[in-house]
């Protein structure tokens, strides 16, 4: 059963952050999270017949209240465990969703849900100082100050070897030391020195299996696991700058790899073949 879509207040940021909008999460009810079964899991299928806005789902997020959010090819769907509420772009309503194709979701520390659409935004992370870092497709990287609404841009400059290597940003991650790591579509992995605003770039010439880095996640030993688009999976040691790459010979099913959950459990298993 599909609930009637609520008139949620979406705020769309002006240029250069095309297509970014957010909803303040003000829902009071709590949905208890399901406990995962370690063996023989049972899959429950949720489709458009159940109220999902589209069968193609690009991203999933569970917020602090337990609601499940699904970014789809045609709108944003919220699931409360019983029914879906769907949010769409409406031309007559400037406070509606900016675009109906939703490709990324992020909840910040204040409980605000940030929604990236096909209009240009692809990744988010919030640093220890509360700044929101926004990666875009084609427009580079932005640091957004939530208190002032001001954004600082980081773009690729062919004349500057210390600039962002590529304006197509696919993944963002801040490590324990406060270092921001940036995965790009054509320019490999970037490490930002915030004090000087300079980037150190790692590409296939440094051992990365592919320059399209689509995801970044850490493990308990401080390594960064990098999912690539065409080069499989790579484990990077930030202290030594050494990459250990994994492909079909190590058991991967394909060369296009996106990390969707913490993989600390894989550390011991993968270390045995390092």
List the helices and strands and how they pair.
Blueprint: E1 11-12, E2 20-24, E3 57-62, E4 68-72, E5 75-79, E6 84-87, E7 102-107, E8 112-117, E9 121-126, E10 132-136, E11 141-144, E12 151-154, E13 169-174, E14 180-184, E15 189-193, E16 198-202, E17 213-218, E18 224-228, E19 233-237, E20 242-246, H1 267-271
Antiparallel strand pairs: 1-2, 2-8, 3-4, 4-5, 5-6, 7-8, 9-10, 10-11, 11-12, 13-14, 14-15, 15-16, 17-18, 18-19, 19-20
Question: Which key terms come to mind for this protein?
Answer:
274 residues; mainly beta; Methylamine Dehydrogenase, Chain H; 2 domains; 20 strands; 2% helix; 36% strand; globular
Report on this model:
The chain is mostly beta strands and 274 residues long. It has 2 domains: 6-30 and 43-119, no CATH class; 125-132 and 142-274, YVTN repeat-like/Quinoprotein amine dehydrogenase (Methylamine Dehydrogenase, Chain H). Helix content is 2%, strand content 36%. It has 1 helix and 20 strands. It has a 4-stranded antiparallel beta sheet with strand order 1-2-8-7, with no helix packed on it. Strand 5 and strand 6 (84-87) form a beta hairpin. It is globular, with a radius of gyration of 19 Å. It starts with 10 loop residues before the first strand and ends with a helix. 37% of the residues are buried.
Structure summarized in a few sentences:
The chain is 2% helix and 36% strand. It has 274 residues and is an all-beta fold.
């Amino acid at each position: 059963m599909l609930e009637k879509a609520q008139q949620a207040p979406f705020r769309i940021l002006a240029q250069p952050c095309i297509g970014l909008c957010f909803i303040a999460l003000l829902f009071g009810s709590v949905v208890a999270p399901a406990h995962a079964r370690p063996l023989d899991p049972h899959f429950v299928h949720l489709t458009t017949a159940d109220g999902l806005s589209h069968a193609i789902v690009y991203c999933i997020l569970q917020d602090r209240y337990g609601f499940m959010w699904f970014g789809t090819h045609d709108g944003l769907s919220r699931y409360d465990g019983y029914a879906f509420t769907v949010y769409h772009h409406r031309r007559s309503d400037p406070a509606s969703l900016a675009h109906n194709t939703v490709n990324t979701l992020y909840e910040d520390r204040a409980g605000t849900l940030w929604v990236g659409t096909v209009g240009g935004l692809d990744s988010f992370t919030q640093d220890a100082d509360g700044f929101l870092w926004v990666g875009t497709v084609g427009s580079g990287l932005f640091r957004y100050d939530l208190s002032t609404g001001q954004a600082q841009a980081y773009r690729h400059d062919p004349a500057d070897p210390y600039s962002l290597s590529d304006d197509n940003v696919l993944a963002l991650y801040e490590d324990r030391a406060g270092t921001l790591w940036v995965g790009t579509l054509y320019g490999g992995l970037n490490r930002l020195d915030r004090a000087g605003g300079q980037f150190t770039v790692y590409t296939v010439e440094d051992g990365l299996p592919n320059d399209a880095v689509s995801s970044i996640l850490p493990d308990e030993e401080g390594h960064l696991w990098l999912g690539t688009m065409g080069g499989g999976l790579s484990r990077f040691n930030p202290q030594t700058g050494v990459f250990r790459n994994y492909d079909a010979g190590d058991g991967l099913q394909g060369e296009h790899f996106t990390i969707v959950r913490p993989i600390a459990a894989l550390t011991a298993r993968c270390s045995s073949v390092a």
